[in-house]
Design a protein that fits this description.
Strand content: 5-15%
Mean pLDDT: 78
Low-confidence stretches: 1-19, 25-38, 67-91
Shape: elongated
Helix content: 40-55%
Largest sheet: 6 strands, mixed
Oligomer: single chain
């Protein structure tokens, strides 16, 4: 037992202080009250009973006589029935382990035991950082293969944490009305620290479930069912919200209104954070792209060089004259970019649709640059296009017939179309060149279709009373679907393969195709926005096209 001199002079009639100092003396005995070697279980039980009665006396006298005097200090209230209360090897009450043990209770929707828990700046910092570090590790485990860390994510996701801290500060009384009530958080920072400890525990469980489910492809409707996937996701998303609300409800203020306010605030803050947080600490490294084999180059042989003039002459000569009293359509397609097959396919499609729907059989000419078509179709060069326009104009009735021209290639701002044919040097087509040739040939009724990026640049130079001009994009946007793997451009597919198979009106088909293209570009994630196809119809050519539409409707019955 401690010496009498070690016991402080006590205020008179202060029973609480006497008992408190007695317990302190027992605690300070070092060997007597703390490290007594227990000879048997009965002696240990007797010691625990003495301590329990002394603590009960402290609580009873405090209840009847009010708080202790200024000269005494209350002991922390711990469980008197546990022999671990005083052993020197026990965990310190302010350690992370102690907080996380109580965080487990809070995560299981039980009341945490606040007795003995202490907060320090370093400890609070560790409790706050732990859930974020856990999220960082969890996100990395979700990615198979190499990944890069995005440091910008370190600045994201703190709004929810700061708002929770602010709410604890606002709704936890300072000081607590009853410090002896073990259900109440000792302070606002204490409640916030417990929220962080709870968040770490819940996050540990959630990530332990998410990682194997997602990495192995098990979290799907095929495994859980559509309802099951939503149920699992909803349960894991609602768990931290419910646990945090319950923790604040139990540990905060005793008055109902503040409790309701903090509960609603927590639901709002955590709910918004769940739906809006989109930051990722890690981004999967893109695999090194395998170089796609480019198209086989054109074999510029003597046979091909000698064949091309003959092919052009034969195709021009094969065009049939117009029929008197019938609105005939002469169709020319122009695909000058050989490295990508999509333009050749679109040329073939448009020629087919014009023959089937507008009766241009025998009056259709394809000009195509491709390694496989050199013996079948003339090359798509500006000079060959000029010659084709001149030949069609010579055969058609300029007052009665319509010349249709479809150009498909890559485009640039201002209107020039890309042209490529291996070793052959091909010049670019421009809208002013086409306008000059049409005027020179004396063509009165024309429909010009341009499927290229920035093709809206063709409208103003070509516009006129006898001209319909329609494009795949406006002058400021790219079109879409002109890559090497594309079967057709978005414009070619929607306009010719779909809409013009159901209507004979270029205006109606273009309007319907425009809406279809907009949706498809959104679904594909087109980076520079809607291509915004354009159309310009001259007043007089509209009447001619209505006449053509009526004529073809009769013929197709």
């Amino acid at each position: 037992m401690p010496k009498a001199s070690s016991i402080r002079t006590l205020p008179k009639n202060d029973v609480v202080a006497v008992t408190t100092v007695t317990l302190q003396a027992l605690s300070q005995a070092g060997g007597a009250a703390i490290a007594w070697p227990m000879r048997d279980k009965a002696e240990g039980a007797a010691r625990r009973a003495v301590i329990a009665r002394l603590r009960a006396l402290v609580a009873l006298t405090r209840k009847h006589n009010g708080p202790t005097s200024a000269g005494s200090r209350p002991l922390p209230m711990t469980d008197p029935g546990r022999c671990e209360d005083f052993p020197p090897e026990a965990a310190q009450p302010g350690s992370l382990g102690a907080w996380w043990r109580q965080g487990v209770r809070a995560a299981l929707l039980l009341s945490p035991q606040w007795s003995g828990l202490q907060t320090t700046p370093l400890l609070v910092l560790c409790l706050v950082a732990a859930p974020h570090l856990l999220g960082m590790v969890g996100q990395r485990l979700l990615i198979s293969g190499p990944a890069s860390f995005d440091p910008r994510a370190l600045l994201m996701g703190w709004l929810t944490t700061l708002l929770l801290l602010w709410m604890c500060w606002q709704f936890v009384p300072r000081p607590q009305p009853d410090p002896a009530d073990p259900r109440l958080a000792p302070s606002a920072i204490g409640l916030f620290s417990m929220m962080m400890a709870q968040a770490f525990v819940i996050g540990l469980v959630v990530w332990s479930l998410y990682v194997p489910l997602l990495r192995n492809g098990w979290f799907t409707a095929e495994v859980f069912g559509k309802v099951g996937v939503w149920a699992v996701w909803g349960l894991l998303a609602a768990w931290p919200v419910v646990a945090t609300v319950l923790l604040a409800w139990r540990a905060g203020a005793r008055r109902r209104l503040p409790r309701v306010c903090i509960a609603l605030a927590i639901v709002g803050v955590m709910g918004v954070g769940e739906w809006t947080q989109s930051f990722n600490f890690w981004r999967a490294d893109a695999p090194e792209a395998e170089e796609e084999p480019g198209p086989e180059p054109l074999a510029l042989t003597q046979e091909l060089m000698e064949a091309q003039p003959k092919v052009l002459a034969e195709r021009l000569q094969a065009l049939t004259p117009q029929r008197r009293g019938v609105v005939d359509v002469y169709a020319i397609t122009f695909a000058p970019y050989a490295p990508e097959d999509v333009f050749m396919r679109e040329s073939q499609l448009v020629a087919e649709v014009m023959q089937q729907r507008f009766g241009s059989t025998g009056r259709t000419l394809q000009l195509v640059n491709h390694r496989d078509t050199g013996l079948e179709w003339p090359w798509a060069t500006p000079l060959n296009l000029q010659r084709a326009i001149q030949r069609a104009a010579a055969l058609m009735d300029k007052e009665e017939d319509v010349l249709f021209i479809h150009l498909t290639s890559h485009g640039a701002r201002g209107g020039p179309l890309a042209a490529s044919l291996g070793p052959v040097d091909i010049g670019q087509m421009t809208p002013l060149m086409l306008k000059a040739w049409l005027d020179e040939a004396g063509v009165r009724w024309s429909v010009v279709s341009v499927s290229a990026c920035y093709s809206g640049s063709w409208i103003e130079p070509l516009a006129g009373e006898g001209m319909l001009v329609m494009t795949a994009a406006d002058a400021d946007h790219t079109s879409y679907g002109c890559g090497r793997r594309s079967p057709l451009t978005y414009f070619g597919r929607a306009m010719y393969d779909e809409q013009l198979r159901h209507t004979l009106s270029f205006e109606q088909a273009h309007g319907a195709a425009k809406a279809v293209i907009e949706q498809r570009e959104k679904d594909a994630g087109k980076p520079d926005g809607f291509s915004n196809p354009q159309i310009q119809v001259g007043d007089k050519v509209r009447e001619k096209l209505v006449q053509l539409e009526a004529q073809r409707a009769m013929a197709l019955r």
